[in-house]
Amino acid sequence: MSQSLNLSISTSSPTSPNFASLSRPSTSFLTGSFRFPVKFRPSGLRTPAPPELLITKASSDPEAPSASASASASAAAATLGSDNGVGGVLSAVPPADTGSIEVDAVTEAELKENGFRSTRRTKLICTIGPATCGSEQLEALAVGGMNVARINMCHGTREWHRRVIERVRRLNEEKGYAVAIMMDTEGSEIHMGELGGASSVKAEDGEVWIFSVRAFESPLPERTIHVNYEGFAEDVKVGDDLLVDGGMVRFEVIEKIGPDVKCRCTDPGLLLPRANLTFWRHGSLVRERNAMLPTISSKDWLDIDFGIAEGVDFIAISFVKSAEVITHLRSYIKARARDSDISVIAKIESVDSLRNLEEIILASDGAMVARGDLGAQIPLEQVPSEQQKIVQLCRQLNKPVIVASQLLESMIEYPTPTRAEVADVSEAVRQRADALMLSGESAMGQYPDKALTVLRNVSLRIERWWREEKHHEVMELPDIASSFADSISEEICNSAAKMANNLEVDALFVYTKDGHMASLLSRCRPDCPIFAFTTTTSVRRRLNLQWGLIPFRLSFADDMESNLNKTFSLLKARGMIKSGDLVIAVSDMLQSIQVMNVP
């Protein structure tokens, strides 16, 4: 059965206002190439039609007509698409009910103050640590633009993380935010232990330190570090280079004494608790035994159970080696919590991850470019190209992607970033990554709020520059649909995004129950913001990770006419839209595209 794309345009008459005139030039309305037939029909035809894909264009006269004209307008008003191709009439806007729609308080304030085009498209993630775990600090981050709060299970107790989760949830409920929660597993790679309660220790050039697999009574002997991997002393050899935290500190192995390994510091720096360790021999990463370690350790499974019980929105898995690990975890989550809506994020930070990149991303709900650990396993000069490759592949496969690690590393200690760091952040935004993540900058840094402000301001500036220079997307997006119905949704979103750019509309509206069509629109990276309306709180928070989406929680029906009426009423009452704004609306309940001015 062939699917046709119909454009229904209201025509003016002497007795009705001109509902065909939009507030933007529409000559380039259908400049994109469609892969199904395009037909036009006047909206006055109300005869039943066979099932079809419907695009409707509608508008309201900005000037109030006379009583007779108003009566005519109700009959000639914007035709709304329905699943059987029969139009409906856009009824009068009902009285406002401001209590039945939920949107992030910061986004609402931005829309009211600066309008549609001011909204930031790139999402921001903050790692929560000692510097930001209090209620006041968390609220400051939310006000500053934090979309997702990350808890790192490498540090702190589960009770500590539970309190952070409770504070974030309370902040959302009481202050109107929509901050999602991501739990990051520790992974089973080789790492250091705690530093005797210290938040960091400085290793100086030439100092000799002991790395040992022995269990020490607290406090640790001076310049001694516990290593979690029992085979560590057996695997390393004298002359090996030991890299801490992706190369932030470097040691040379000078002697092995039973379970102890004596190392001389050759590149000084800060040692952080539970930092990752890798060792190199003759310029190559030593990974034979490392590759045999399980991706998800016994501790990770306990942490995953904790995350499921606490209802986190995302679980990020460290050092993913294959798609089977992700598939196994997703099955486990489904078995443990049938109603759970937890997304699984694969952290790309090892040679194995790069070798199996596409299959890992396909199996996951998203990916993180963990550049710190990745840079410890591949040549440093290779990291930028691998980052771009991962970002592009995630975009093509419709998976959100996070660029993480050392974005503003200097701001752990200093109130302003280096210019090179700003350029690095700008490049990630220019690559159109979904999200940027702060790690130590927000977890233990002295200036977490300022670091977040830098991310926000750079993101806004680069996004605005992109739009001003008319850098419309040139990336070829492959077909990813697995069914005919999904193909229709994909074509609708591709077409709607092209129309939005060509018509310079103010916003795209998408009504989605599971978030799929919202993600398809985000994949297209349109110039305008995307208002994503969904019925569940968990989907709303999950959409907070994806580029350009402004998620709302709204109860809606399958009737697009009533949904639009209700949405216009509620958003106008809160000052987030105004009459005359040009929007395009799509829905996963009704395969249609509607173009209209807000009445």
UniProtKB/TrEMBL annotation:
PROSITE patterns associated with the record: PYRUVATE_KINASE (PS00110)
UniProt region (Disordered), positions on chain: 1-25, 40-67
EC number(s) stated in the UniProt entry for this protein: 2.7.1.40
Transmembrane domains' residue ranges: none
NCBIfam families xrefs: pyruv_kin (TIGR01064)
Organism: Coffea arabica
Similarity comment: family membership: Belongs to the pyruvate kinase family.
Entry protein name: Pyruvate kinase
Record key words, sorted: ATP-binding, Glycolysis, Kinase, Magnesium, Metal-binding, Nucleotide-binding, Pyruvate, Transferase
Pathway: Carbohydrate degradation; glycolysis; pyruvate from D-glyceraldehyde 3-phosphate: step 5/5
